[in-house]
Amino acid sequence: MRTADFDYDLPEELIAQAPAAVRDECRLLVMDRATGALEDRVFRDIADYLRPGDLLVANETRVMPARLLGAKRGTGGAAEVFLLRECGGPEPRTNRVAFWEALVRPGKRLKPGAGAVVDFTDAAGRVALSAEVIDWAPGAQRGERVARLSTELPSLDEALHAVGHTPLPPYIRDYAGDEELYQTVYARRESSAAAPTAGLHFTPGLIERLRAQGVEWATVELEVGLDTFRVVDEDDPADHVIHTERYTVPPATVEAVGRCRAAGGRVVAVGTTSVRSLESAWDEEAGTLLPREREATSLYILPGYEFHVVDALITNFHVPKSTLMMLVSAFSSRERVLAAYAHAVEERYRLLSFGDAMFLH
């Protein structure tokens, strides 16, 4: 198995640059994962493929306003701080002070120990938030820094919402539409740097329609990091070190999976982040799914992996040679998935985060 085995021709013009006009009117490529048989449908037709007793499990994380555009104190030069994850620091966290691992630009002018501070102004032109670069992040691979965030507003949350922007994937350029369309309709706690995009296609009406036909709904939370967009650089994918993310599988979801199994239903993961959460929560020794609360996972799913919890998968189309291509291939086969992608390209599906969806069952 080589990384090149998971490559495919991705025409740039098929990379969706904006969401569908109506969430559940995007296209849906349905694939029988055992045979590779394909059907071209519309996303709301997912109801035709789900049965009473099935369980949908979705990642309810919300994307943070993690992209901060400001000016370096003292020089006024443009600077960007991209928040990745909160971390510990040399002083206690308060409502107005916290420490975050972050990516910064320009990196050469925002080095730890140089007293580099970036100020961020709100719509009225007042400094609402400041970030002081104080250290290198532990194990930094891309120059990640530790930044001390501080504000004079009542809380950092208020400050972030006054100055921050919802980050979009690097392949989406110049999108100026409603940033809320990069959030799922059921998103709750802000904890991610990227959206669990398979869920973008659901509407409240579609969820209620599915519930009415006997399909249960449960949630997990996986704090999606930017590394989800990384391409595997190593020739052998087994040499790749996958990123670590925090995930939660609440007791109510464990119970819902138990009811689903008892009723003979299928556990349908909404997105690869839901897959990683559920499969990470499987306890091999106990032979069962266990609740988890913000535990770390670096589960790397490659072809040959045995799925313990997930029976079907709703997912978007993914970047070539990515860990997500490998996960989807593991759920069926590399050959069948690549054939499905070739079909999607030929039929001019819209691809990647703002694009159309697949259902593998």
Automatic annotation (TrEMBL):
Q: Where in the cell is it found?
A: Cytoplasm
Q: What's its top-level EC category?
A: transferase
Q: Is Transferase among the key words of this record? A: yes
Pathway the protein acts in = tRNA modification; tRNA-queuosine biosynthesis
The alphabetical list of record keywords is:
Cytoplasm, Glycosyltransferase, Queuosine biosynthesis, S-adenosyl-L-methionine, Transferase
According to the UniProt entry, what is the EC number of this protein? 2.4.99.17
Q: Which family does it belong to?
A: Belongs to the QueA family.
The protein depicted here goes by the name S-adenosylmethionine:tRNA ribosyltransferase-isomerase
Q: Which organism is it from?
A: Adlercreutzia faecimuris
